[in-house]
Amino acid sequence: MLYSTGHGGKVVPAETPTGLHEAAAPFDTMLAPPVLVPSTRSAAMPGRAVTLEAASGGAFRYYFPNAAPFPASGTTLAALDALGDSMFDPANPSPPVSIPPILTYFGQFIDHDITANTDRKVDGLSDIEGTFGPTPRAQVTAGVDNLRDGSLGLDSLYGDSVGQDAFSAKLAGLMRHPTLTKKMRLGVPVDVGDGQITPPADSATDLLRLGFLLDRGDLTEAELNALPPDQRDAFFKNGSVLRQRAILGDFRNDENLLIAQLQVAFLRFHNTLADLVPTFDEARKLTRYHYQWLVAHEYLPSLCDRSIVDELIATGSPMYGAFFDANVPAMAPKMPMPLEFSAAGFRFGHTMVRGGYDHNRVFGRAEPGKPNREPFARFDDLFKFTGDGQMKGFGFQQLPNNWVIDWSRFVNAENPFRSAKGLDTQIDPPLDNMINQPSGIFKNLAKRNLRRGFRLNLPSAQECIAGINASGHFRPITALDPTRIMQGRSIAGADFGNHTPLWFYILREAELLGSGHLGPLGTHIVAGTLLGLIIKDQTSYWNDTSAGHRWSPSTFRPGAPIDSLKAMLRFTGQLAF
Length: 577
Known about the structure:
mainly alpha, 21 helices
């Protein structure tokens, strides 16, 4: 499991091997102690085609390790900050796009499942405050570890990370039902008088939270106080136990309400599948398979250049394949993770975030006979109605039921509050002063991303394009004209037109070429990596041909495949149409 105190804070992975990972759980929080049974994910990740050797440094590497370094001078940081400031311009709003907002947070869900650590302080290596230059690449790869195993294996859902310590193993057990052992545990929101947000018909629409476990005696405050300081800090705030703290595989999945409710949706998906199969392991495998398939066949085609995605699927994602073969022996059982993807490419979703959403009938468009309180849910509230936000200080230890999501408002792009923001170089203002984040640079998302890429010594976009073209795997990519890259922006102190920060370029490329999706460089880095992680994982759906063909949702339900996020939400009872 992964403990987090927010961007810029410390993250503590569990590292002591243990076999006590799996018990199971239902839609409701039950009243018996958990059952711990052995995990099916051993430390060697059986089935994955890797060579288990002593790890050499972290699990992050560069796609283009020999690329020329990003030009640096005494004015580079100031220029990066000015570029970040230019990305918050209320007078230049993004045009509407037909992207359902659920895809914004599905992307965040994917990111939390496969990577952790490039956006946090690593002492003496990757602090992005103050004055600094690029860190030598060998020092980055030796010192920045991926705190996830890199696979799309949903350990963020199940808490079954490789190498748990005893306390993490206990939490993983508490996430699973003590008697209905095929299922996962969920929480019930607090009734605050606005009536239930339906569907679903049941009330299992919140995460399991610490206060419930303390009240039952499954955990004690003394036990939490006895933890090492970094672990202890995840459960306390201002000296008091954080009873609202969600108990889940990655604490980041309760940092905002939309990602938390998506976590609930996937837990419900597992539980609904568990009603149809004989074992917990089978339900978990099917949950993983469907999730991986949705990444490859819904998420990526919706947000990337579809022709390139099709090419990558047909060719087996050769750029990631070569990267994997070059790097995996040194870091098994982890999947090697490209820094160009983690610290730049896969941060494109930040530009899709809106400052408010049509969340449900109470905080959004009213329904006939049911007046609303607000015309939309403000972004700040979506952070405050979480464990980190302590349920906005109302004293609730579970989510108020009037903040349960209405997924019907998130799966179609119908109006500005029911669509994602466009993929471009304009970011909605709440992200320039983010709540629940430390003071300083970490509160400004654009500056944070640009400074992080500089500190981690990412190649410029032009160097990445040259590297892709030199590989010979794909049709050549033509770099954007320098004047088009910086059109409308005058940034002194750096030549960003010819040496463009990778994250900014990917957004600018989408803005100019993508028509609502990533352009060629962004697609190769994002889709190539995610597809590569699936293809190279011998335990993924891609490599299951036990039915005589590659697994697909039709393999499980030939007449009614769960082949979209909409279909998944219908299957779990959270969507009526």
